[in-house]
Design brief:
Layout: E1 4-9, E2 15-16, H1 29-32, E3 35-39, H2 41-44, H3 50-54, E4 86-88, H4 90-96, E5 100-105, H5 116-128, E6 134-137, H6 141-153, E7 157-162, H7 167-175, E8 179-183, H8 187-201, E9 204-205, H9 214-218, H10 220-232, E10 240-244, H11 249-263, E11 272-278, H12 283-290, H13 314-324, E12 327-331, H14 333-347, H15 353-367, E13 376-381, H16 389-396, H17 406-415
Parallel strand pairs: 5-13, 6-7, 6-9, 7-8, 10-11, 10-13, 11-12
Antiparallel strand pairs: 1-2, 1-3, 4-5
The structure holds pyridoxal-5'-phosphate and zinc ion.
């Protein structure tokens, strides 16, 4: 059963019953009135504790049902989301200059990104509402993920992506059968268009920043991390959890999940959160450093998944870093490109630019003294490298062209040109 009790506005603190509101606080509007899902943690302890979870055979995000806002389990789509691997990555730790480093490979989800945790939740909520259609705007991964989960749940989907979305993500959208609007503009413009269309046509809105349930899906990555560390390194937990930041929903979900596991007694202390942005698009970093409000900016980075000039979940994203005593850093596109082969060669994990940005961010944070060399980090690698082949190719180096002739191979091996 679920211990979900209702929703609270992060801005004005008003509380609502789940059936009183769909998405955001009506008093504050969708810019400010983001809602937080509430639970009865005291009652849930007998159902969610280390012993009950250890005996739970469900190897997906749904093993945490009491901590999720879902009443009817029969609506859960069949695709397996979550329980992604967590790898100890000593060579990456050496490269980044930290004592120990783990990588959680979220590229292993059904549509190859972290967004599947949110989409799985989104389609359940749409089915609960008996929605005729579900929609979202996305830099690419939320879209391809929603397309996949809509197909699995049998709900039509309409998707708004900026024209620059990488081809592989667009291919996913079309293959899963979504109706796709390629907006000749930025992600921010696609977002506004989607919001207007959802309101006008009455479609269910999967935009993570305004739909309070999606972060509940995203937080499951932290619930897993905590459980996986209990097995891997009993009694200890990394000093830092690292994730790249666009709209701020992912980092907000990560932090909520950690706080819940702390509240439920799974971890003795909370880690700090490192939010990583791109040099060419860092509204969170700017606001955090200057201790001021959000100033939307341009989005100049090849890491399309975090090319978000106007973050839609500013409050939850900012809270993750300030409450945890963490930090924001930014990295250049060159550093991001360099992190793709680094992570692939030192840990065997192939990520897209925004997926590996976290790793690049750790290096920056160590160099600038934010993360100490004796500290430990867990990097959430958010998306698979095959999502953006153009960037991977730029980072990868070249093949060695030969005729089908052993003599040419011999020559190349002996002169050891490129390896
Ligand atoms: C969406 C996304 C992010 C950032 O998540 P936000 O909720 O927008 O902050 C990071 N990496 C990848 C691969 C993503 O798709
Ligand atoms: Zn409010």
């Amino acid at each position: 059963m679920t211990y979900f009790t209702g929703l609270r506005c992060v801005h004005c603190g008003r509380e609502y019953h789940a059936d009183e509101v769909d998405y955001f606080c009506p008093a504050c509007g969708y810019h400010d009135g983001i809602l937080d899902a509430l639970y009865d943690y005291d009652s849930m302890r007998k159902e969610i504790n280390p012993a009950t979870l250890a005996g739970n055979g469900n190897r997906s995000m749904w093993r945490y049902l009491p901590l999720l806002p879902i009443a009817d389990q029969t609506l859960i789509p069949h695709l397996q989301v979550g329980w992604t691997p967590l790898y100890d990555a000593p060579k990456v730790a050496g490269e980044l200059g930290v004592a120990r480093c783990w990588v959680k490979d979220e590229g292993r989800n059904p549509t190859a990104s972290f967004k599947d945790r949110a989409s799985a939740m989104g389609v359940v909520k749409a089915l609960e509402k008996k929605a005729s259609r579900i929609t979202c705007a996305s830099t690419g991964n939320a879209a391809s993920s929603l397309a996949g989960f809509s197909a699995a749940a049998g709900i039509p989907a309409t998707i708004f992506v900026p024209a620059r979305a990488p081809e592989a993500k667009v291919a996913q959208l079309l293959i899963y059968g979504a109706q796709v609007f390629s907006v000749q503009g930025t992600y921010d413009e696609a977002w506004e268009l989607c919001m207007a269309a959802a309101a006008e046509f009455g479609w269910y809105n999967r935009n993570c920043a305004i739909n309070p349930y999606l972060i509940e899906g995203k937080k499951t990555v932290s619930l897993e991390l905590v459980e996986q560390f209990r097995t891997l390194t009993p009694g200890s937990f990394p000093d830092w959890i690292v994730v790249s930041v666009g709209d701020g929903c992912t980092i907000g979900g990560v932090w909520k999940g950690l706080k819940e596991m702390h509240l439920l007694g799974f971890i003795p202390r909370l880690p700090r959160i490192l939010g990583v942005q791109a040099d060419g698009c860092k509204p969170f970093l700017t606001a955090w450093r200057d201790n001021c409000g959000l100033a939307p900016c341009d989005a100049n980075t090849l890491a399309d998944s975090i090319a978000v000039g106007h973050p839609r979940n500013f409050s939850k994203g900012m809270r993750a870093v300030t409450e945890s005593g963490g930090a924001f850093v930014s990295v250049s596109d060159e550093e991001i490109l360099g992190a793709i082969p680094m992570l692939a060669r030192k840990a065997g994990v192939f990520g897209e630019p925004a997926g590996v940005a976290g790793a690049a961010g750790v290096k920056r944070a160590v160099e600038s003294g934010i993360i100490g060399r004796s500290e430990t980090v867990a990097i959430i690698m958010t998306g698979n490298g095959l999502k953006d082949i153009q960037s991977a190719i730029r980072a990868a180096g070249n093949t060695i062209a030969v005729q089908p002739d052993m003599e040419e191979v011999r020559k190349a091996v002996n002169t050891a040109v490129t390896v």
